[in-house]
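Q: Hi! First time asking for a complex rather than a single chain. Here are the components, and I think there are two in total. Is that enough to go on?
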Amino acid sequence: MKNTTANRLFSMKKTIYVVLVLGFVTAVAAPVNSGNKIIQPPIQATAINAKIINPIVDKEKIQADKIREKESAEAFKEAYKVLMHPRCMNCHPSGDAPLQGDDSHIHAQNVTRGKDGKGVYAMKCSNCHQKENVAGLNMPPGDPNWHLPPANMKMVFQGRTPAQLAAQLKDPKQTGKTLQQMLKHVEEDQLVINSGWNPGEGRTTPPLSHAEFAAKFREWIEKGAVIPK
Amino acid sequence: MINLKVNGKSYNVDVDPSTPILWVLRDALELTGTKFGCGMAQCGACTVHLNGDAIRSCITPVARAAGQEIKTIEALSEDAIGKRLQKAWIEEDVPQCGYCQSGQLMAAAVLLKEKPYPTDNDIDLGMSGNICRCGTYQRVRKAIHRAAAMK
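A: Yes, that's all I need. Here is the structure of the assembled complex.
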């Protein structure tokens, strides 16, 4: 009996020691372990102090960033109106045939893009599309480099929401271009300028001028290429 | 003066550079095998080869062809593909009224040059720009397959 009681007391003491030791180790180790984490109390306190010391600057920066993001998204929404206009979208179709007209119907003759985007067999773009517009109502519009995006980089606009299209334009895997190269296509590519804003007799032009469109596209990129909601 | 090479011969023609190739061929050079259909690249009747491509001559300014090689229906049978097409067209008795056929043949020649053994889908893709009011499409298809199979 006595032995048993003594054993129990010993066991209890041992348990208390173990708990105490563990508690101590945890207390000492905790700050060290969480030293790299932001959750460590002293660092949190510092962060709060910093905010209290310098509250105006941070608030202004956050506010400025928010405005910048909003402006970027707004600029894209403006550019999107041009991107989705038939003069631009008709050569960025979801299928393999370009589109025609303001109702974006499939191109007559069911022309197809081919590997390089320049047509196939006896149906190549430049068989009909000359270096310049052919004079007359609804005659084939022209450019020296008339083509669709190639088969391995289709750059579909048709059916894309603003968010989907912005995300796609930012993804070099889907465009083959960096954003700077994309900007160059928008600002300087003669095919963009000719097919969009010199489309030939009988065709409407996008809601913004080329200069306005290019400026919106540039603003979108320079303010962070934000994907609009 | 514009220098043109048509069917292997050299010509100097005195025409406005914006004149469609079709009218230079038909009126100045009297090569009337190439036909006028719609005048706006919609039907394919005026198809000729410019450096091997099946251009629509009714809207292509002659300036584009300066110093380049033009081939018309009159010279199509001078090469192997053209010969096979001519033979196949006769064997299948393809034409009805015949008006679109020179364009059909010029388009078919480009198709066979780029795809020696075309599938039905290749034929659809390559020939859909050549309209036939008589509806000879089935015979055009058969003749292209026949020409491809010839040796």
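A: The interface with chain B takes residues 108-112, 120-124, 126-128, 130-131, 134, 136, 138-140 of chain A (CB under 8 Å). Let me know if you'd like any chain examined more closely.
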